[in-house]
Amino acid sequence: MPTFTLMLATLSMEVFVSPQGKWTAKDVEKLKELHAAKGDRWVEMGASLGRLPEAVRDKFRTLKLGDARKAGAWTPEEEGKLTELVSTYLAKRPAVRVFSFLQSPCPGPPLACICP
After folding, report:
1. pLDDT band at residue 70, thresholds of 50, 70 and 90?
2. Is the distance from CB of 108 to CB of 3 less than 8 angstroms?
3. Which domains does the chain have, with CATH numbers?
4. Distance between CA atoms of residues 49 and 46, nearest Å
5. Is 79 helix (H, G, I), strand (E, B) or coil?
6. If we measure between CA atoms, which residue out of 114, 105, 83 comes closest to residue 7?
7. Residue 101 above 60 pLDDT?
8. Residue 106 has pLDDT above 80, yes or no
9. How many whole angstroms separate alpha carbon 7 and alpha carbon 83?
10. How many C-beta neighbours within 10 Å does residue 101 have?
11. CA dihedral sign, ordered 12, 14, 20, 23
């Protein structure tokens, strides 16, 4: 569910601090070895590394992108593409109502804006 993923991303960036702290070179090597052996089994790798599966997945994606990882503000073209993709996704899910923060208030707590 996209909202849940957004919530996890927000928590990992702003609130949650891993008790293990920053990734060490040893952690990164173990992650690479685990991924080679287990593929995209983030839950299993997270348990082996003592980290959340989402943190393991995000770290692997960061490693995989390397220097190709883009930072900074989104271009208008990127924003347009994202809007198009989200609209297409939501159009395929007619049973879900999405509340816009700008158009109408969400009846639930922040980050819980997909309501049945």
Report:
1. confident
2. no
3. 12-68 (1.10.10.60), 76-115 (no CATH)
4. 5
5. helix
6. 114
7. no
8. no
9. 19
10. 9
11. positive
Token pair listed for 5: 């993923």
> How long a stretch of residues is the chain?
116
Burial class of residue 79, CB neighbours in 10 A (0-12, 13-18, 19+):
exposed
Residues 6+ apart with CB under 8 A from 89: 2
**How far out from the chain centre does Cα 45 lie?**
17
Q: Residue 110 contacts by C-beta under 8 Å, 6 or more apart in sequence? A: none
Least confident of 22-26, 85-89, 100-104: 100-104
* Whole-prediction pTM: 0.49
Which residue in 34, 116, 84 sits closest to 43, CA to CA? 34
Say how far apart CA 104 and CA 82 lie, in whole Å. 21
| Residue 42, pLDDT above cutoff 80 | yes
Nearest residue to 29 (alpha-carbon basis) of 13, 47, 49, 43 = 49
